[in-house]
Amino acid sequence: MLDQRISGNKGDHNKIYFLIVVIAALIGTNAYLYLKDKHESERFVSVNTEKDRLKLEVEKIEVELDKVNAINLSLSDKLIKEQSLAREKIAALKLALQKGELTQQELNAAQKEIKNLRTFVKNYNDEISKLHQENELLKTQRDSLAKSADRESQRADKLALKNSELNDKVKTGAALKAFNVNVSAFKVRNNGKQIQVSSAGSAKKLVISFGIAPNPLAEKNYHKIYLRVFDPAGNLIISDENNLFDADKQQMQFSEMITISYNDDNTGYTIQWVNPKEFIKGTYAVILYADGFTMGKSSITLK
Predict the structure, then answer these.
(1) In sequence order, what DSSP letters do the residues of 45-59 get, joined into one string?
(2) pTM
């Protein structure tokens, strides 16, 4: 009886041991599967996080390249080619990082390419910065030269103005000036004899006599003397509308013109002007011009 009880207890103990082993195996298997799943999950999260970081790096690199275009520099063919190649690599990286999953090898390759791009962009930006500084220096030098040229131009304009003013003064100083300008009215008889008159009804022409003041600056040569005659109403009397000359910085019409030989020797001169119209009562004004300036004035009153 005792042997049977002992034998029964051993069988129960074996069952218990077996159950313990099975439970331990199940627990171990579950623990292994849990740890494996956790590791895979962590690795997946890590890969995705790295992808996001790499995407951000690529975008930063692209922004750095875009900044170059904002500077508005004139790039050399070499720099344009380098930027084009970099943008092609960026586009390829973006496309690769958009994939659902990346192998560790692909991730490592992307990391290496981004590192190379980062180095390229740094060197590229350094070169662009240097080019920008050189351009700014050239611009500063150009602006300085432009200001210098502008100052020289202003100085030249001032000198030209002074020279012009000086030339005007010289011309004014060298111009002939009349003195003792006298105006007389004459009638002409059939035999050609001239008789001085004071009435408008009988007058046919005016004779203007004058002397020329001594002037060592005046050119001893032939000079044209222009006469303008105004009637009592202030109208210029001319016989030809094409009789034009320049004086006092404007173009004018003249009533009569003669050419004299000036020798600074106190020679007297006369101009005989025949009125193409009938004389009327009143005062006639005469103005003489020479060398582009007013030479002298006088008048006569006819009854």
Answers:
(1) HHHHHHHHHHHHHHH
(2) 0.50
